[in-house]
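DM from R.C. (forwarded with permission)

"hey, sorry to bug you on a friday — could you get me a structure for this? deadline for the figure draft is monday and I only need the backbone to look sensible"
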Amino acid sequence: LELTAARLDASGDAGGGSIYIGGGWQGASIDGRLSALTTRISADSVLNASALHTGNGGTIVAWSDIHNPESNTTVSGTLTAQGGAQAGDGGRIETSGALVDIATARINASAPRGSGGLWLIDPYDYTIDSAAAGAISGSLGGGTSVTVTTAVQNTTLGASAADSVPGGSGNGDITVTASISKTAGPGLDATLTLKAHRRVTVATGSGISSTSGKLNVVLWSDFDGTQDGGVAIDAPISTNGGHLWAGGTASGGGSSTWNGLTVGNGPSVGHQSANHNAFDLSSSINTAGGHTLLWAGTGNNSQNGIGIKKSASLIDPSINTGSGNLTLIARSLYNWDGSNATLGVSTTGTLTLAPDTASAWSSFNW
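My reply, with the result:
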């Protein structure tokens, strides 16, 4: 299924309508139709489901069958689902498939007189490189919240994970390799949620930051509760007053609400056979008044808790929440690479240190 130089308009004076390309929201069938195997939207195509005067933005979906390892969704055009100019919230936009390319997409679900909407990206594995980071940054700057969520590949569908994801393992990991920066939209807060089947990594040389408006950040590993996730923060995170939550899920699909954000209901857990710690921290976190919660469980080689190390430039990791509260839930804080790192902590809010389990005080090691 391919759109070239298309103009699809579902805008309305009192609310946006719906545009479905290749399938419905999260793969819902539209009038019993099958999902597309390949969906492409060209750079000169424009899809609009905005509210013009009042009301909420509508829904736009670009979908290819994520359950088929050969599926591919490429979005290069402009997709808009804005809230009304006088009143109304932003709508929701989804770009999903086993493989997703949104490097040059222009996505806008903002709201000039309401709350920004959502952009959902749903592949198997996802590496946020410079092109993808640029697209995501642009949407966040307009007040559109962005959620990236991955599903583990079903290898019974005929192809191995390694075959279906070029250069990747198909394990449902999310890896940030370039900087995501919210540099526009003063007064327009947004949320970046990275929700992985397995591991979430903010890799060295990347980073997540905001200099305009608050940016809430959710790093949610192992969301299906298979005990093989973990979180790594190896590059700076700066939220400009937004909240930061990082952890996992205690049971498959389990979630909770924390400071108005939808987050997991358990700790990050490292993969026992893949040399993954439960939580790696080798860089800085600065929330400037936003609250921070880091929740670490068990990892490989019985290393349970938050593993710290010095950065490549031999700088110790640090957490500074300003007036925001800081909560660290972990059985231990430990050096795992022999760098003799120390964790610098600064807050004028409430500092809470707690073990991962109620019975773990005897092994609480800081």
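R.C.: lifesaver. The radius of gyration is 20 Å.
me: no worries. Residues 130-141 form the longest helix (12 residues).
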